[in-house]
Amino acid sequence: MTLGVDLSKTNELKFLIDTGAEISLVRSSSLKPEVEISCSEGINVKGISNTIMRTKGTTELRLFAGPYETTHTFHVMNDNFQWQYDGILGRDFWIDKGANINYCDRRITMDNVAVEFDPNVRDKDRQTKITLKARTENLVRLPTPSKGQGLISKKELIPGVYLAESLSTEINGTCVTSIINSLETDVTIEPPVVVLEDIDNDECEKTVIIFTTQLAEDNDRLAKLRNELRTDHLNSEERVSLIKICEEYNDVFHLPGDKLTFTTAAEHAIPTPAINPNRAINTRSYRIPEVHKEEVQRQTEQMLQDGIIAPSNSPWNSPILVVPKKADASGKKKWRIVVDFRKLNDVTIGDSFPIPVISEVLDALGNSRYFSTIDCASGFLQVPVKQEDQAKTAFSTPQGHYEYKRMPFGLKGAPSTFQRLMNSVLTGIQGIKCLVYLDDIVVFGESLQIHNNKLRDVLDRMREHNLKLQPDKCEFLRKEVSYLGHIITSEGVKPDERKVEVVKNFPTPTTTQKLKGFLGLAGYYRRFIPNFSKIAKPLTELLKKNTPYIWNEKTETAFNALKESLSTEPILQYPDFKRPFVLTTDASNEAIGAVLSQGPIGRDLPVAYASRTLIVAERNYPTIEKELLAIVWACKYFRPYLYGRKFTIVTDHRPLTWIFSVKDPSSRLLRWRLKLEEYDYQVVYKKGSKNTNADALSRIQVAEISPDDKEQRIEITQDEKQKIFQEMHEKPTGGHLGMNRTYDRIKLFTSWPGMKQELEDYIRRCEICQRNKITQNKTKMPLQITTTPDVVWEKCSLDIVGPLTLTLEGNKYLLTFQDELSKYTIAIPIQQQDAETVAKAFVEEIVLKFGIPQTILTDQGSNFLSELFANICKLLKIKKIKTTAYHPQSNGALERTHRVLVEYLRCFILEDQTNWDQWISYATFVFNTTPHTATGFTPHELLFGRKPNVPGILQKEPPEVLYTYDNYVKELQSRLQSSYDLAKNNLIAKKERSKEYHDKNVNVPLFTVGDKVLLHDEKVRRGRSLKLSPPWIGPYEVTEVEDVNVTLKLPRNRTLKVHANRLKPFFD
């Protein structure tokens, strides 16, 4: 029925009349935003789909129906609780209003006012057949012979269409309930007759039951489960049967948003008899980086909410650290909290459990055609820790002290506990309907029906013991699976070809060094290869001195014969799980390798081989990290053999034997060491010369092959390659990415031999990239040591600083002058930097007061290159030289002095900076009366021949004159000459040290006449953003090379001399 509502968006709302609902509801999106909701009164509600949701709170609404007006309190639902109505008028509404509902006349009377049902509802009620949309839940009215209120039982009407279990009330021979269509197509059915069963009112829950219609693919648990399942490999019959079973047992699967529960079938104990019950192990916590503290708090709060941990006052403590996880789809970094239980594990008594006998496994499989592997969702966290042992798992964070209630990763004995749990849960059907080894559960069957029956039995056990499965990690109805080093297929059990793939695909040695590596691998097992010397002779002949390395038919035959011997019996062994395993690893600069074997070290026979190439980042690891990476990777690769068993790791890197004691929480070694905590092993050192089996595998530069890579590749023509490069690099969808990122992107779709080198050549010649990309390895020419003057005023520098803040005197620029030998500096405030002002200040403040310098060095500013300034220099017979454009290092000494002067001014000027010209004379005085680091003298002393007398408490009385003027002049000349010589030597030594330091990181491309180069653009063009402008312009042709200066040919027959540091080669 439709009623007017004062606070609704449309001024009226459409309600469902439901006398079976205990409360009245309204959808929040149907109300105006300003509606006040009392959030403290939220409750849990449950519909016929058994989905429990919480209301946002309550609100009071005013309702209108013709002359009738009333108010009522409604519970407000979130928008994700979807239905086709704006609200429900429940039993509380009708009782409160004293309503009389006449279903025959379709009329409701309240306070003598009659309100009609909506007419479109009547039309729906008169339908003789019901049409159910695909994958939807539908609210329907069905005929019933029962009277009053009762429970409708769940029932499958036709395959894939279900009558929901619900509570309903008979009204005029009908009742309202829900029908679910789980099929992919629409279905039309006859309305079934339902029976209302009597219910016990004492068993009614406080949770409110409501009835609603909602889209299954958005909210329904079954739709979420279907999305998690992998069914692409199944035919229609297999897919339908699997989905039916999974929907039947949907409560067994852990879906996103579900709270992880725990079982009561087993508990994990942590026996520590060596520790006095009144004592504890308390390891100092590691320092957590500030950037990780928020992540630690977030994950800790989540574990508290999930009941995995609890606050603790335990005296025990194990440190935590934050380790990186694989980034999510958006590229955002993800992190995992890891507890370092090493000290606890050291005092914990270990445990063991039986291993399945492989022969019994083979007998159990029979002629099975279907196999499913089942994976528990965070299996360890579904096992509770014994109450008395929970305190031993305590750890601390900046927010508090906590202990685990569930079994965390990294505890000694955890695999044993989990195996016992699986044995207990699946007792009676293990080996008959399924295989179990630790977290590997395999269900098998000769036919689809037999397999599905066994799968139901396994799922029944999971449900009975409250164990949850991870649907996206389960593989259902596969034709082959890997189990305990064997491949189980419909044709029987066969060895896992991956164990010997790395040996069978061993590349043909192309150098004597690579041949030595292969012979080292074969020689390690030579005692088990009959006639080894005879077979290997063609290969060993190539290692003789002065023998040319020629690979022919004989060497190829010997090479293949040895590979065959290494990958077949009697060398290659089947794993015997009653005997301990030996894992031998090694790492080189290119790859890592491992051999899994059994037997005494030195006489052990291989069970499986493994190798992979290191990625670029891994090749930069230190040796110890590469060696530990080999161990971590090999343990993960051979996990089905090693997990839950004690084994030996053999390495030729002795420092790895003390990896247990590493304490740096930021260390990659520690993070990897903690990854090995789930394994039970000991590390044994073996000299490198005796570690030839794993050493050879670590030098195979063959990356791990994914299933996609194994598919036959189609030959790609050169023209097609160029089109691919152009599409993936130059087009807007390519984006001119760098070489590595473009390469990684293309690899997602295709690859061919030599693709990386071809792509590198292509991108190096991309003109747009060359002009727009910032060059990391820029040109850096060797430092040029300039000539050092013999006397003061022989060579001086002139420059302009500004514009600065306009002072009260009208000054905006600073003309600076520095003598290169003495470093004496003069700074003159000027109002503008035009040629006339600069020339006037130069003559009046420098020439007329200190004399004419012999040589002046300036930059290429227009004021210094003007005709006026050139004429003054010519008149005064001053030699004028200039620096290269945009290369201030040519006048580096004066540029460094500018920094000193500016730092002085910052300390004394006003906040509005309008009096800097009043302090500049003080700044130059301080500079000139302080010993210079390059000369060892004060500039004042080198210029005037006497040490400066500074004002203040250090001011000295003038000395008495004890000699004539002639004697004074001679002594002054002598003192100045010796000072000049010493200052010059100090300057030269300083320049040489600077050159030595600078030249450590030079990058000198060989520019020659005729080369094309790009020029770094230093100009800022009006109306353009510097960040969006290409940093390089050109290309230009080199016409002359003179030391570090290069002359370029510009358009319109112009030339430009620049420093080579501003150039980079252009590739066309």
TrEMBL record:
Keyword hit for Translocase: no
A GO cellular component annotation in the UniProt record: DNA polymerase complex
The keyword Transferase is annotated on this UniProt entry: yes
Top EC category: transferase
Domain (Peptidase A2) ranges: 13-93
Residue ranges annotated for the Reverse transcriptase domain, each copy included: 304-488
Start and end residues of each Integrase catalytic domain: 785-947
CDD domains assigned: RNase_HI_RT_Ty3 (cd09274), RT_LTR (cd01647)
Domain of life: Eukaryota
Enzyme nomenclature, EC number: 2.7.7.49
GO molecular function (one): endonuclease activity
Pfam families found in the cross-reference section: Integrase_H2C2 (PF17921), RT_RNaseH (PF17917), rve (PF00665), RVT_1 (PF00078)
Keyword list, A-Z: Endonuclease, Hydrolase, Nuclease, Nucleotidyltransferase, Protease, RNA-directed DNA polymerase, Transferase
UniProt-listed GO biological process terms: DNA integration; proteolysis
PANTHER family: PROTEIN CBG26694 (PTHR37984), PROTEIN NYNRIN-LIKE (PTHR37984:SF5)
Name of the protein in question: RNA-directed DNA polymerase
Gene source species: Cryptotermes secundus
Classification of source organism: Eukaryota, Metazoa, Ecdysozoa, Arthropoda, Hexapoda
